């Protein structure tokens, strides 16, 4: 239960940071830096408790990697979703409804581009997680949180303009709950993110055969 609570808390702060920095963001606020930073610190805070996934796509990748028991999957996913929805409620209570005309993510009519953006973003994050947090060569390192956090920053700057830069089904659910993305677009995030997480696990197992056998 402690693992699932940690996943809820970490995802809460991740999604709340997204909402607070994006909805009516103050001039000079650089959302990707804030989001990557809070992910980094929450990974350091919760890594020893739950592994600090805070992302269903990462949980899927770690499960396919063989480092997350099947029995933990429901608890992790529920904890992440509850954290995202709770954060959305708190953000909307504090900041009010966003200006949908000016702030809602517009994905356009051609879904392939945002799907690709979400796929590559989720792939990069999950691939970095697997290599810095589960590979034997990096056991006990102190840089894993920084590496993962800055992967999010880089992907948000590079790929965010195409899709809004969720790279995380829990964050995508929060975007929908806060009115920053339409419910009809949720499938784009789910497909791109989960496919990216699964592909990262396949790539890791191919590139790190010795680790994959553990």
What does this structure look like?
The mean pLDDT is 92. The protein has one domain: Glycerol uptake facilitator protein (Up-down Bundle). The chain contains 10 helices and no strands. The chain has helices at 2-22, 31-50, 56-65, 73-95, 100-103, 112-133, 144-163, 169-177, 186-207, 209-212. The chain is mainly alpha-helical. Helices cover 72% and strands 0% of the residues.
DSSP helical segment count:
10
Spans with pLDDT under 50 lasting ≥5 residues? none
Rg over C-alpha atoms, rounded to the nearest angstrom: 16 Å
CATH homology-level superfamily: Glycerol uptake facilitator protein
Number-wise, the strands total 0
Strand content: under 5%
The 3D shape can be described as globular
Name the average pLDDT.
Answer: 92
- The structural class is mainly alpha
Give the domain tally. 1
Helix residue percentage? over 70%
The CATH topology annotation reads as Glycerol uptake facilitator protein
How far apart are the first and last residues' alpha carbons, in Å? 25 Å
Summarize the structure.
The chain has ten helices and no strands. It is mainly alpha-helical.
Highlighted features:
single chain; 214 residues; mainly alpha; Glycerol uptake facilitator protein
List the helices and strands and how they pair.
Elements: H1 2-22, H2 31-50, H3 56-65, H4 73-95, H5 100-103, H6 112-133, H7 144-163, H8 169-177, H9 186-207, H10 209-212
Helix pairs in contact: 1-2, 1-4, 1-8, 2-7, 3-4, 3-6, 3-9, 4-8, 6-7, 6-9, 8-9
């Amino acid at each position: 239960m402690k693992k699932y609570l940690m996943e809820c808390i970490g995802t809460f702060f991740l999604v709340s940071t997204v909402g607070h920095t994006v909805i009516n963001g103050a001039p000079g606020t650089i959302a990707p830096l804030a989001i990557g930073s809070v992910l980094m610190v929450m990974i350091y805070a919760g890594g020893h408790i739950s592994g600090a996934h805070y992302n269903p796509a990462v949980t899927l990748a770690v499960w396919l990697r063989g480092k997350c028991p099947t029995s933990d999957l429901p608890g992790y996913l529920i904890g992440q979703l509850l954290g995202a929805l709770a954060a959305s409620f708190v953000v909307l209570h504090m900041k009010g409804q966003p200006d949908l005309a000016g702030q809602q993510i517009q994905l356009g009519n051609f879904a392939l581009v945002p799907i690709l953006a979400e796929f590559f973003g989720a792939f990069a994050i999950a691939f970095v997680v697997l290599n810095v947090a589960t590979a034997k060569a990096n056991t006990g390192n102190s840089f894993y949180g920084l590496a993962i956090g800055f992967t999010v920053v880089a992907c948000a700057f590079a790929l965010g303009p195409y899709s809004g830069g969720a790279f995380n089904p829990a964050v995508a659910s929060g975007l929908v709950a806060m009115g920053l993305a339409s419910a009809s677009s949720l499938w784009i995030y789910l497909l791109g993110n989960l496919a990216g997480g699964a592909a990262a696990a396949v790539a890791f197992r191919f590139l790190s055969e010795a680790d994959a056998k553990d």
